[in-house]
Amino acid sequence: MPAMSRMEDSVVDVLVVGAGPGGSAAAYYLARAGLRVLLLDKAEFPRDKTCGDGLSPRALAALDDMGLLPAVMQAGCRINGVEIYGPDGRSIAAPIPGQDGRPGYMLVVPRRVLDGLLLEHARAQGAAFMPRIHVTDAQSTADGVTVRGARDGQAVAFNARAAVIATGAASGLLVRMGVLAQAPPGMLAARTYYEDLDVLHDRVQLRFDGVPLPGYAWVFPTGQRSANVGAGFLAGRSRRSPRQAFDAFIGRSRLRAALGRARRAGPVKGYPLRVDFAAAPTHAGRALLVGEAAGLVNPLSGEGIEYALESGHIAAQHLIAMFERADFSPAQFAAYDRALRERYLALFKFCARARNLALNPLVLPLLIRIAARRADLKLLLIRIVLGEQPIPRRITAWTVLRAMLHSRT
Prior knowledge:
By secondary structure, the chain is α+β, with helices and mostly antiparallel strands. It has 13 helices and 19 strands. Helix 2 links the parallel strand 1 (11-17) and strand 2.
């Protein structure tokens, strides 16, 4: 407690609220640059986090840049391919493409392990960490940010020259800050773990059989006979709860026989996903928003870890430049927003359109049948789902769909 009191009384350079991938990545890069960083989280680590646990090649490249890839590889299950199942049960499979220096494989790592590794990596660079801090407000002042909350029932307050907000899908803090008027609509999902599965390969399964559309389900192996299994759908398009969608998938998909012989290794947990980056604010006063707090979850695949890691790095780069220039003007924070838009906006708009156009019982089976006969189109579909396909601003989802639909001859 005395150490916390001293930290409360002082002003740090950057407060990071949330010790998930985005927050810990930002804290790592900021501390590595010599800034005084305080990382806050409501949980005591290690802690579980409801998620699909998949790390895409982009996420692995980000971890490699941080020097964490060897440790994560030791803790994860290597995935070399992807299978996509349509609503009619037809499927395509392909190796995970590697390009632009990214690995040609994925990893599945439980968030309890991954987030712990990221947090300790940030602390090793000098970032301070305080768990069990329930942040209730964060307000910018003339020369910094004041963060208020409670720890073990006692009020606490912290001051910094700038802040990073990495609170994930939980939007309560952003609403209280005035950043959001209300919680934005998004996706809903539920997942659990299974053990003693009979048929598992070194491939992840993305399934559209037995789930509300637009929506999808997944089977991500966590070991030779274990997997993270879940289902998600776009909120507002179905009256089901996440648990109801999960149960429907388990009962109706062609995976039912294999899962019926397996043992469920934990509870089914539901969680929201924010996929609203195209319209989401990314900064407020002297605070930068990263990862899911900025809506950075892919609206087609539900992947968010890679964008959390990348945006945490981008936020750190912008803050480091502000400290070097001693310039915390609104224009500097707006530059962060422009950087995110230039990097992600075309991709996220494309993926939202592709989700709404393709993920229906008529179009998706046709796309999978076509892709099964055309190696180049199969690779294109896999790359789009993984977020690996460059998306020029002038290309729309209809452009790709028309090209695939017209390639039957």
